[in-house]
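U., I forgot to send this yesterday:
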Amino acid sequence: MEPDAADASQSVFQDASARLQRLTPRQYELLGLLLQGDAPEEIAQRGNLSVRTVRNYLQQLYDAFAGDNTDAGVDDDQRGDDGDIIR
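Result:
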């Protein structure tokens, strides 16, 4: 792996790790159930929650991991030499 790729990979891992540490115990539990493939309805039943509550938690998880990644879909040709988005 090239040094830049290794640095980027390590940075992504550190960012994800930091985000995981900020989750509440309930969010962490629901994330685990999602990763096991449970549907929101199954999670609600198992956790004695309403489906709406589970969906609220799912939105919180999405916001925690992807909510601030507003330029993720920007192609390289839309970036300047410094990597900033050209608007």
